[in-house]
Design goal:
eight-stranded antiparallel beta sheet; 1 helix; 30% strand
């Protein structure tokens, strides 16, 4: 009888040890996933027409969050800067600090530092004028952003959104999940 109790006790001890190990691995995995999704990458849902035809309502953009991010022309970014809409927005960087932006609202062309911007992602030309004065030079620590659907986007052309402080850029979107599959967002 004592041998059976010893075997049974050993079996119970092994089961408890195995359960403890499994729970420990699960908890560690959950903590690592939470840290990655909090500090490294994040999925952001797209709402609205401002980034069409690139992104549509219901798409999910994967943003890479990094403390060492340097804004570049063409980056699709998620912005947390306070605005009249009280929500994060997703737009494309058109100009970075020190660059001059001018827009010919008659032809719909955008000029950066005097040269015409190459914008293969556009859904429509830039003919909507808001209340920002052009040409303008982007100050240090800011970027100028616009949506890809220029006729349906409130962006840096309007003081409602204005120029964006780089501190408020949550991250750059590298790709998105759309109803047509994965879309690469880098130029």
């Amino acid at each position: 009888m004592d041998d059976n109790n010893a075997v049974e006790r050993t079996f119970k001890e092994k089961a408890v040890d195995l359960l403890y190990e499994a729970v420990s691995v699960f908890v560690t995995a959950v903590v690592i996933i939470m840290l990655v999704f909090t500090f490294v990458i994040r999925f952001v849902g797209v709402v609205g027409e401002s980034m069409e035809p690139t992104l549509h309502t219901g798409d999910w953009a994967l943003i890479m969050q990094t403390e060492f991010y340097h804004p570049r022309y063409g980056d699709v970014v998620v912005i947390s800067q306070p605005n009249s809409y009280h929500e994060n927005i997703i737009k494309r960087i058109i100009a970075t600090e020190g660059q001059s932006v001018d827009i010919d609202f008659t032809t719909g062309k955008v000029f950066i530092d005097g040269g015409e911007a190459v914008e293969p992602y556009l859904g429509s030309p830039t003919t909507n004028y808001y209340d920002m004065e052009f040409p303008l030079t982007v100050p240090e620590g800011y970027v100028f952003v616009m949506g890809d659907n220029r006729q349906k986007s409130i962006d840096s052309r309007s003081t409602t959104i204005g120029l964006i402080r780089t501190d408020y850029i949550l991250g750059a979107a590298k790709w998105a999940i759309t109803e047509n599959g994965r879309v690469d967002l880098e130029l």
